[in-house]
Amino acid sequence: MRHLLGERLRQLRHVRGETLDQTARRAGISPQYLSEIERGVKEPSSEMIAAIAGALDVTLVDLVTAVADRLVVVRDTARQPACQAAFALAA
């Protein structure tokens, strides 16, 4: 989940045309920490996620919903067999 959260935060930051420094400054964190969050290396607290969401002018609900929607897609993709041969092997 932290990788998907990081991807979404990076997407939002890029859409705004911002650097790590700009977003991190508004969120009250270091650019290095924001980079680690975006890369899925760190698992931020809920307070930190809320601060970053605020810095990106997105509500926490919208951010979490986007990540949850992405989780559903990833889950559903993982459940689908790669090819028809997988059906035959399963039988």
TrEMBL record:
Domain of life: Bacteria
Ranges for domain HTH cro/C1-type: 9-63
Keywords: DNA-binding
PANTHER family from the UniProt entry: HTH-TYPE TRANSCRIPTIONAL REGULATOR, METHYLPHOSPHONATE SYNTHASE
Record-given protein name: HTH cro/C1-type domain-containing protein
Source organism of this protein record: Promicromonospora umidemergens
Lineage, opening ranks: Bacteria, Bacillati, Actinomycetota, Actinomycetes, Micrococcales
